[in-house]
Write a structure and sequence with these properties.
Length: 77
């Protein structure tokens, strides 16, 4: 299991990954992390339209869920 990082950090890196604005080395590192992290895998699926339950979800609803996730208190490990 990859190391736990703060949700805000992961969402920021995931957004940069999806936008294609991170270095090739960071892409490799993030893909390695995401492939072993169920939360990142699920998040990426929701953002790329690959999650079957979210196919066709309006962008404003995706944005709502993103804000909701960012506003949740971080749990202590």
């Amino acid at each position: 299991m990859p190391p736990k990082l703060p949700r805000e950090v992961l969402l920021s890196v995931a957004a940069e990954f999806l936008a294609g604005v991170i270095s090739p080395e960071a892409v490799v590192e993030f893909e390695r992390h995401a492939s072993a992290c169920p939360s990142c895998t699920a998040y990426l699926a929701t953002q790329t339209g690959e999650h079957p339950d979210l196919a066709g979800m309006p962008e404003e609803m995706k944005a709502f869920f993103r804000r909701f996730l960012l506003a949740r208190p971080t749990r202590e490990p």
